[in-house]
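quick one before i forget lol
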Amino acid sequence: MKLIALCGSARKQGNTAKMLHQVIEGPKSVGAETEFVNFFDLNYRDCISCYACKLKNSKSFGHCIVNDELKPLLERIEQSDVIVLGSPIYYGNLSGQMRSFTDRLLFQYLDYGGTGTGPKPKNFKTALIATMNVNDEIYVKRGFKDTLVSLSEMIGHTLGSCELLALTDTVLFDDYSKYVYQMPDIEEKSSRVEKISAENMKKAFDLGVRLIKS
């Protein structure tokens, strides 16, 4: 069994990366193979709507043919069993790098049919981890939750299944006094010693174990 963790954050030691590394520790503890990829280490494009992945009776059917640094990753993903996506939330949605990746990953398997599941090689176990500064109330009130639930359902429908793990109310800066930040929670966040709670770290660890064992 292999789990591949895909990070859509430029902050390589940030909240998203830490959660994904904790996800990896779960499968490692039960002897599974793991891989971590940060999209900011790769040079790739968004989907170019060439429709080569839709051509009947072609070698490209069901596969993205854009020849960039995402292509070998897409090939390795097909050899994996579990896919975990991690992204910070910007303006209520995934990072640009993650959105470009999900377009490429999902569209190649879309067949415009009644099921919408397309020619994927297998059913994958997947999860989406989303980290954000907003609290639980804003997460719901401003529609962030609706957007992420809809996206995770689309991922699950296309790839096999998808579990959503949202981490709200994150700590952004090591030293808030250096930055313009005028939100009312500044005192609480600037004094928070534990940047990610032990509870959330355990959720990430347990998620990895659960996905690799299921």
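fyi The first helix runs from residue 15 to 29.
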